[in-house]
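Coiled-coil domain-containing protein
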Amino acid sequence: MNIQLEKMKQRQECERRKRIAEEKHKEWVQKKREEERRERERKLSKEMAEKATKELEKMQLQEKAEVKYKEWLKKKRAEEAEKKKKEKEKEKEREAELQEKKARSEKIFKEWLHNARNKPRPVLNGYGFPRGKSTGLYFCYTTVVT
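Structure:
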Protein backbone atom coordinates (compact mmCIF):
# COMPACT_ATOMS: atom_id res chain seq x y z
CA MET A 1 0.00 0.00 0.00
CA ASN A 2 2.88 2.28 0.72
CA ILE A 3 4.22 1.57 -2.72
CA GLN A 4 0.90 2.33 -4.29
CA LEU A 5 0.68 5.45 -2.23
CA GLU A 6 4.18 6.35 -3.25
CA LYS A 7 3.38 5.70 -6.94
CA MET A 8 0.23 7.73 -6.64
CA LYS A 9 2.16 10.60 -5.07
CA GLN A 10 4.74 10.35 -7.83
CA ARG A 11 2.00 10.35 -10.49
CA GLN A 12 0.33 13.36 -8.86
CA GLU A 13 3.69 15.11 -8.60
CA CYS A 14 4.35 14.28 -12.23
CA GLU A 15 0.93 15.56 -13.27
CA ARG A 16 1.41 18.68 -11.16
CA ARG A 17 4.78 19.33 -12.77
CA LYS A 18 3.25 18.65 -16.17
CA ARG A 19 0.44 21.16 -15.47
CA ILE A 20 2.94 23.71 -14.20
CA ALA A 21 5.09 23.14 -17.28
CA GLU A 22 2.03 23.51 -19.54
CA GLU A 23 0.95 26.67 -17.71
CA LYS A 24 4.46 28.08 -17.96
CA HIS A 25 4.52 27.17 -21.65
CA LYS A 26 1.14 28.83 -22.17
CA GLU A 27 2.39 31.92 -20.32
CA TRP A 28 5.58 31.93 -22.39
CA VAL A 29 3.56 31.59 -25.63
CA GLN A 30 1.19 34.33 -24.51
CA LYS A 31 4.13 36.59 -23.58
CA LYS A 32 5.79 35.81 -26.90
CA ARG A 33 2.60 36.65 -28.82
CA GLU A 34 2.18 39.86 -26.82
CA GLU A 35 5.80 40.75 -27.48
CA GLU A 36 5.41 40.07 -31.21
CA ARG A 37 2.19 42.14 -31.27
CA ARG A 38 3.98 45.04 -29.55
CA GLU A 39 6.89 44.71 -31.97
CA ARG A 40 4.50 44.81 -34.96
CA GLU A 41 2.74 47.85 -33.49
CA ARG A 42 6.08 49.54 -32.84
CA LYS A 43 7.24 48.83 -36.41
CA LEU A 44 3.93 50.02 -37.81
CA SER A 45 4.00 53.23 -35.78
CA LYS A 46 7.65 53.76 -36.80
CA GLU A 47 6.74 53.26 -40.48
CA MET A 48 3.79 55.63 -40.13
CA ALA A 49 6.02 58.23 -38.48
CA GLU A 50 8.64 57.84 -41.23
CA LYS A 51 5.96 58.08 -43.89
CA ALA A 52 4.51 61.21 -42.26
CA THR A 53 8.01 62.71 -42.02
CA LYS A 54 8.67 61.95 -45.69
CA GLU A 55 5.33 63.47 -46.68
CA LEU A 56 6.11 66.56 -44.60
CA GLU A 57 9.57 66.86 -46.19
CA LYS A 58 8.03 66.38 -49.62
CA MET A 59 5.46 69.09 -48.95
CA GLN A 60 8.14 71.44 -47.60
CA LEU A 61 10.32 70.75 -50.62
CA GLN A 62 7.37 71.36 -52.94
CA GLU A 63 6.53 74.63 -51.17
CA LYS A 64 10.17 75.70 -51.37
CA ALA A 65 10.26 74.84 -55.08
CA GLU A 66 7.04 76.77 -55.62
CA VAL A 67 8.45 79.81 -53.81
CA LYS A 68 11.64 79.64 -55.89
CA TYR A 69 9.61 79.27 -59.09
CA LYS A 70 7.51 82.30 -58.18
CA GLU A 71 10.66 84.31 -57.44
CA TRP A 72 12.18 83.21 -60.75
CA LEU A 73 8.98 84.06 -62.62
CA LYS A 74 8.80 87.47 -60.95
CA LYS A 75 12.44 88.13 -61.85
CA LYS A 76 11.88 86.97 -65.42
CA ARG A 77 8.84 89.21 -65.84
CA ALA A 78 10.78 92.16 -64.41
CA GLU A 79 13.60 91.47 -66.89
CA GLU A 80 11.10 91.28 -69.76
CA ALA A 81 9.47 94.53 -68.65
CA GLU A 82 12.90 96.19 -68.45
CA LYS A 83 13.77 94.85 -71.90
CA LYS A 84 10.51 96.19 -73.37
CA LYS A 85 11.12 99.53 -71.67
CA LYS A 86 14.63 99.74 -73.17
CA GLU A 87 13.28 98.77 -76.59
CA LYS A 88 10.64 101.51 -76.36
CA GLU A 89 13.29 104.03 -75.33
CA LYS A 90 15.49 102.99 -78.28
CA GLU A 91 12.51 103.26 -80.60
CA LYS A 92 11.74 106.75 -79.27
CA GLU A 93 15.40 107.72 -79.73
CA ARG A 94 15.33 106.40 -83.33
CA GLU A 95 12.13 108.28 -84.05
CA ALA A 96 13.58 111.46 -82.51
CA GLU A 97 16.76 111.08 -84.59
CA LEU A 98 14.68 110.44 -87.70
CA GLN A 99 12.51 113.46 -86.96
CA GLU A 100 15.60 115.61 -86.35
CA LYS A 101 17.22 114.34 -89.55
CA LYS A 102 14.03 115.05 -91.49
CA ALA A 103 13.76 118.55 -90.03
CA ARG A 104 17.43 119.23 -90.87
CA SER A 105 16.95 117.91 -94.40
CA GLU A 106 13.86 120.09 -94.92
CA LYS A 107 15.72 123.13 -93.57
CA ILE A 108 18.70 122.51 -95.83
CA PHE A 109 16.40 121.92 -98.82
CA LYS A 110 14.51 125.17 -98.14
CA GLU A 111 17.79 127.07 -97.81
CA TRP A 112 19.04 125.56 -101.06
CA LEU A 113 15.75 126.38 -102.80
CA HIS A 114 15.87 129.96 -101.50
CA ASN A 115 19.50 130.34 -102.54
CA ALA A 116 18.83 128.74 -105.95
CA ARG A 117 16.09 131.27 -106.75
CA ASN A 118 18.23 134.21 -105.80
CA LYS A 119 21.39 132.94 -107.51
CA PRO A 120 22.28 134.71 -110.77
CA ARG A 121 22.03 132.48 -113.80
CA PRO A 122 25.15 131.94 -115.88
CA VAL A 123 25.40 133.66 -119.23
CA LEU A 124 24.81 131.27 -122.04
CA ASN A 125 27.79 131.92 -124.31
CA GLY A 126 28.49 128.80 -126.19
CA TYR A 127 27.75 127.08 -129.42
CA GLY A 128 24.34 128.08 -130.69
CA PHE A 129 23.99 130.83 -128.07
CA PRO A 130 25.97 133.88 -129.28
CA ARG A 131 25.35 136.78 -126.92
CA GLY A 132 22.98 134.65 -124.91
CA LYS A 133 20.39 134.15 -127.67
CA SER A 134 19.60 131.00 -129.56
CA THR A 135 20.39 131.27 -133.25
CA GLY A 136 19.15 127.93 -134.45
CA LEU A 137 20.51 124.45 -134.73
CA TYR A 138 24.04 123.84 -135.83
CA PHE A 139 25.12 120.56 -137.19
CA CYS A 140 28.59 119.32 -137.17
CA TYR A 141 29.63 117.51 -140.33
CA THR A 142 32.50 115.13 -140.27
CA THR A 143 34.31 113.95 -143.29
CA VAL A 144 34.87 110.33 -143.67
CA VAL A 145 38.15 109.46 -145.35
CA THR A 146 38.28 106.15 -147.17
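Residues 2-88 form one domain.
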